[in-house]
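$ run holo --ligand "guanine" --emit tokens
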Amino acid sequence: GKKEAALLREEIKKEVLSLKEKYNKTPGLTVILIGEFAPSQIYVKNKEKNSKEVGMNSNVIKYQSNVSEKEVLEKIKKLNQDDSVSGILVQLPLPDQINKEKIINAINIGKDVDGFHPYNVGCLSSNTGGVVPCTPLGCLYLIQSVEKHLRGLNAVIIGRSNLNGKPMANLLLKEDCTVTIVHSKTKNIKEICQGADILVAAVGVPNLVKKDWVNKNMIIIDVGINKVNDKIVGDVAFDEVKQKVKAITPVPGGVGPMTIACLLKNTVESFKRHLNG
Ligand code: GUN
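-- output --
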């Protein structure tokens, strides 16, 4: 993940530079961060650092956790109209008084670099373009760094969230995989996983996938981030599984850096669409 993300950032850096030379303009990412949730503070700091490293403008707008929904909606409206803002990201989760759907729906679909707006969700589902969510996009790049052609492969995704499981399924369908989503009510999860060529674990259960769930040809992408005794672990029991599969991403240092690199990519794409009107 670290290596692939560094390669992607290098490409983006070159593109940002050439866009600057050609148009005398710089892509800009604005992140809205509400409250003090510690993981969000860390993610946003990393997004800001990475944006600056590739030469993009980065702006973080911080609110106290008791900010009103109205104030945030008004800010989004201004950012939608601001030509210097290519991408808008509202870091989740949000405090209870703020309706997540209302906030996501308020973001201009062309600046929705998370790909969470229902329009972009619909585009991915109907295979008609749109912005693809950063984590599943990063996962796809990681899978393709090991296996270029995915046609006909069995992909099993653990977890059916809007953030990861569902967009991941759509992306892999687009690559002609045979896709199965398993979740907490699925029977025989272990047996279904055993037959996978690609296994994406995105469920938030520490060390769920064990060595008897996998096979030697499997590519595993671990999206889980779980805290166990002050240590961050994924959804896959990495140490016992790593020798038994073709490829596996670690946690941390796997999907995380790719997610941020894909966010930068989505922001540059958004900037280019804006240039083209
Ligand atoms: N919180 C955790 N992951 C994400 C993400 O990908 N985007 C946003 N906006 N918030 C998050």
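-- notes --
Residues 89-92, 114, 134-135 surround guanine (CB under 6 Å).
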